[in-house]
Specification:
By secondary structure, the chain is α/β, with parallel strands linked by helices. It is built from nine helices and 13 strands.
Length: 303
């Protein structure tokens, strides 16, 4: 499958802490507990689906600083084209993730977007051409993708997006993304009340064919409009959880990869396996499995 993926890429630093809440002390020495990688939702998705075997065109915005050069080196090393990655920003976004080992992967994320929300792709022909050639457009919920939503829809492309943390179905920042989405993902982390009730409101307000709410360690709940059906699945537990940062990106990515191959139910099951394997690693863009590794577990795992 040919995917156009547009979203954030940044330099991410993961810090292993003793516990939440963080107690003040002037200095600590977490040997091998600080890990810096190239990450960001858009890049995580691109790397994940590429690992699973899809053809990907990745688009994003970076700066002209040292962090941008690190990103360029990473993209070149991983064989990801930079034709749709533009250095329009004053500085490249960065993030810091605090995570507590042995806690089921609890984490706290600090994301400094710099001036990225003030920029767009403008009239970049390479972006529009990539949309036209794609089978599906994955448009992450960031400002520079807002103008791409009607372009992708007019081109007849399936649009997939993840709005992450949501507490209001009319959220003004995310409403455009939810309105255009054919496949819509989000987390339950700030939902007040029942995720099932929240999902019911979403499907009544928006036209997405598939809506999935990730429930963390409790699994997922999914709505399929074609059957007017709800499916709830417990999380896949393979043990060895290190850091849950990027778990939602992994679930979303694997579902996109499998959806057109085997339908929504099998896709979400395989996506849960992909995610369970991913969170055994430290960092949002590491720990992605191949199709063969997922299939090996899927054949024997009891859902």
């Amino acid at each position: 499958m040919k995917l156009f993926v547009s979203g954030l890429i940044n330099v991410e630093t993961n810090l292993k802490i003793r516990s939440f809440p963080v107690t003040y002390y002037p200095i600590d020495y977490p040997f091998f507990g600080i890990n810096s990688t190239v990450s960001g939702v858009g890049y995580n998705i691109s790397k994940a689906v590429k690992t699973l075997g899809d053809e990907v065109v990745f688009a994003s915005l970076i700066g002209k600083d040292n962090e941008a050069q690190r990103i360029i080196n990473e993209l070149d090393d991983k064989g990801v084209s930079r034709n749709c990655v533009f250095d329009y920003l004053d500085r490249t976004p960065v993030s810091v993730v605090l995570y507590e080992p042995g806690s089921g992967g609890r984490r706290q994320i600090y994301c400094d977007l710099k001036d990225i929300q003030d920029h767009t792709y403008g009239d970049a022909k390479s972006v529009f051409d990539a949309i036209e050639r794609s089978d599906m457009c994955v448009l992450c919920n960031i400002n520079f993708n807002r103008s791409l939503l009607p372009i992708a829809k007019a081109a007849g492309k399936t649009i997939a997006t993840d709005v992450h943390v949501l507490s209001d179905i009319f959220d003004p920042f995310n409403r455009d993304f939810m309105s255009y989405a054919d496949i819509l993902f989000l987390s339950d982390e700030e939902i007040l009340g029942s995720p099932r009730d929240f999902l019911e409101k979403l499907k009544n307000e928006y036209s997405a064919k598939i809506i999935v709410i990730g429930l963390g360690s409790d699994g997922v709940i999914m709505y399929e409009r074609a059957y007017d059906a709800y499916t709830e699945l417990p999380a896949v537990d393979l043990g060895g959880v290190v850091n849950t940062v990027g778990a939602g990106d992994a679930l979303f990515s694997a579902f996109i990869h499998y959806y057109n191959r085997c339908g929504a139910l099998e896709a979400i099951k395989k996506a849960e396996i992909f995610t369970a394997l991913k969170i055994r690693h430290d960092g949002g863009s590491v720990g992605f499995s191949t199709e063969e590794q997922v299939e090996e577990i899927y054949r024997t795992y009891k859902f």
